[in-house]
Amino acid sequence: MNEWIKLKAKDGHELGAYVARPSGEAIGVLILVQEIFGVNAHIRSVADGYAKDGFLVVAPAIFDRFEPGVQLTYQPEDMKRAYNFYGMLKPETTLMDVAAAYQWAKQAGKKIGVIGYCYGGLTSWLVATRGKDYEMQPSGCVGYYAGGIGSVAKEDPSCPVMLHFGANDSHIGQDQVEAVRSAHPEVKVFLYEGAGHAFNRDVDPSSYHAASTKLARERSLEFLKTHIA
User: Where do the Dienelactone hydrolase domain residues begin and end (predicted)?
Assistant: First the structure.
């Protein structure tokens, strides 16, 4: 079961969100934060996958602040549009939009976690470290290839965090990964040999790394069931 709903952020902004529901009672709630391509078919499929595992999943459309309903592919023209939108993003408003999803998620009466990919991976880390300023206290956060995390690595997360990086990621230097490991030995940081940026993106042959995707998902699911379910 899935549907689109409307959310309202604290500043009055209205945004869409994709909701994927499990077949039975939810074991927990996941907020899924998009890449820089909108809540597109790939992100919706990831949400659907975690719904099959028993989670109620909500994916806020953070690009709605600039253009409602943006869903981009990974082709060159859409890549250009994606980077244009990326340049408009600000952590403060993104966190407000995620907080709108969090407030909606609270209605389920379950523990809440956050999982994000690319820009969403960085956002998931910021929810862990800054969430209290936006009335969010997640039970756990997972971030995939969180670009730019090195600059905020010393911020202190308020919940357990798991991070996944490709060892061959051309967008994220090893110094960023080591910055997190050095500042937070307690954070579960995994590096995947042979994988580059966006290795979980199964619809994009230029990025997808099947073995790393499988292992990272197994680890993420175990983590989420431990802390959220």
Answer: 16-227
